[in-house]
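Entry type: protein chain
Record version: 2
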Amino acid sequence: MNEKEEVIQLIRNLPENATMEDILHELYVHIKFQHGTQEMNNGKQPSQNQKPARTKSGRWLH
C-alpha cells in the first residue's frame, strides 16, 4: 500500500463526525509511529526523555 492509500484508509477508519483537527491528529500520530518503527528497525532506541505516543496523544492508538 502506498502512502496516499494509507492516508485514505486512515481517514476512512475515523468516525463520520471527525473534524479536520481529528484527521490531522491521526496523521501526526501515524507519522510519528512510522518514524519510531523505522528507527527501531534500524537499531536506534528512543531517548529517555521522549514520552510514549500514547502519553502525548492522551489515548491509546488503534
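Comment: DSSP finds three helices and no strands in the chain.
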